């Protein structure tokens, strides 16, 4: 009996090493982080300073602006606009989410909106306007100047395709690590992995664009722009994942999940746009590839590419940083002869 117990203890020690325990603890923390991040971001969406224009007779504007700014929780940030046509142009350029056109000769106003900017934003502005108009004994009609495409229910198609591209990028890099070792054996092997990500990213980007444009007709008329954006997103996810694996080994895969899934997805502005999220997610969202990609796609499809350059630059910076960090870290570890570095053949 004693012999059996000792044998079991030895086998348990061989099967469950400290490294295994550490990985399991890391997995547990990732799962808790996932729950905390998603529930924290989505459990109580509230509008925060949504850009809204107001236009109409001068004598009515001061009171309307004041009342909008006084709404509890600062749901909108109102500004005076010279006339309806100017307000409409700024909405169509993505500069404003909505605009209230006050009728000086009657009690029915007009609310101009852009569903392409996000359904949750339009709903929030309509609720704020309803509250304002009720205080004044007025009503309003809604005119959607930038409606969603018929195949883009609630404007979520862009978020889902961006998520698919990013998942494809980090899974490609992670699987290459599984096949040949988390850390490349030398800088040359690191360069080969990074180079392999380029054709993969191009194929993934084009394939995703074909799925949402000519095949499903969810986001139409921007095939090559979407393909280019997708290629850059996949490349960014792949190079960052490779860099984290070079530095941290297997743990780098977990850090990739933390970055792209735990933090990136809930802050991307997909289900709820940034103005509807709590402060932390609202602030980090534009600086992560998920959020930059979702907003860039929205700008390409619905706003003729207005102000898309900054979001593309964020994604490009991740791709470039991943390449540089991966190569530098591979060179440093190779010179130092890191144990795991010597063990990996890939």
Write up what this structure looks like.
There is one protein chain. By secondary structure, this protein is an alpha/beta fold. The protein folds into 2 domains: 50-144, 3-Layer(aba) Sandwich (Rossmann fold); 151-343, no CATH class. It is built from 13 helices and 5 strands. The chain has helices at residues 2-15, 18-42, 58-69, 84-92, 119-136, 157-180, 187-215, 223-248, 251-264, 279-284, 289-302, 309-336, 339-343; strands at 50-55, 76-80, 98-101, 108-113, 139-144. It has a 5-stranded mixed sheet, with helices on both faces. The chain is elongated. The two termini are 45 Å apart.
Please count the helical segments.
13
Mean pLDDT, to the nearest integer, reads: 89
Alpha-beta content class: alpha/beta
Q: Count the beta strands.
A: 5
Largest sheet: 5 strands, mixed
> What strand line-up does the widest sheet have?
2-1-3-4-5
Shape: elongated
What is the H/E string?
A: HHEHEHEEHEHHHHHHHH
Helix percentage: 55-70%
Short structural summary:
The chain has 346 residues and is an alpha/beta fold. It folds into 2 domains: 50-144, Rossmann fold; 151-343, no CATH class.
Break the fold down into its secondary structure elements and pairings.
Blueprint: H1 2-15, H2 18-42, E1 50-55, H3 58-69, E2 76-80, H4 84-92, E3 98-101, E4 108-113, H5 119-136, E5 139-144, H6 157-180, H7 187-215, H8 223-248, H9 251-264, H10 279-284, H11 289-302, H12 309-336, H13 339-343
Parallel strand pairs: 1-2, 1-3, 4-5
Antiparallel strand pairs: 3-4
């Amino acid at each position: 009996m004693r012999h059996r117990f000792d044998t079991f203890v030895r086998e348990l020690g061989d099967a469950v090493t400290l490294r295994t325990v550490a990985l399991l603890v890391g997995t547990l923390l990732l799962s808790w982080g996932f729950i905390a991040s998603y529930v924290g971001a989505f459990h109580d969406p509230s509008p925060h300073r949504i850009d809204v224009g107001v236009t109409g007779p001068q004598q009515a504007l001061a009171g309307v602006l004041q009342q909008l700014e006084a709404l509890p929780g600062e749901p909108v940030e109102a500004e005076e606009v010279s006339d309806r046509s100017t307000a409409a142009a700024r909405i169509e350029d993505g500069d404003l989410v909505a605009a209230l056109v006050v009728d000086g000769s009657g009690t029915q106003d007009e609310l101009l909106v852009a569903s392409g900017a996000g359904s949750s934003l339009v709903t929030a502005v309509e609720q704020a306007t309803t509250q304002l108009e009720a205080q004044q004994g007025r009503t309003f009609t809604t005119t959607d100047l930038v409606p969603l495409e018929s195949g883009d229910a609630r404007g979520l198609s862009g978020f889902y395709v961006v998520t698919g591209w990013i998942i494809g990028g980090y899974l490609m890099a992670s699987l290459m690590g599984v096949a040949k070792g988390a850390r490349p054996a030398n800088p040359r092997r690191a360069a080969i992995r990074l180079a392999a990500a380029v054709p993969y990213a191009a194929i993934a980007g084009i394939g995703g664009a074909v799925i949402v444009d000519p095949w499903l007709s969810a986001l139409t008329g921007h095939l090559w722009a979407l393909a280019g954006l997708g290629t850059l997103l996949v490349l960014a996810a792949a190079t960052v994942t490779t860099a984290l694996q070079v530095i941290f080994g297997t743990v780098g895969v977990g850090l990739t999940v933390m970055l792209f899934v735990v933090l990136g997805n809930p802050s991307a502005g997909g289900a709820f746009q940034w103005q509807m999220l709590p402060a932390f997610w609202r602030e980090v969202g534009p600086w992560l590839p998920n959020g930059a990609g979702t907003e860039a796609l929205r700008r390409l499809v619905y706003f003729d590419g207005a102000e898309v350059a900054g979001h593309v630059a964020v994604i490009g910076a991740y791709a470039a940083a991943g390449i540089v960090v991966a190569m530098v870290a591979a060179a440093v570890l190779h010179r130092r002869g890191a144990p795991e570095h010597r063990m990996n053949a890939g």
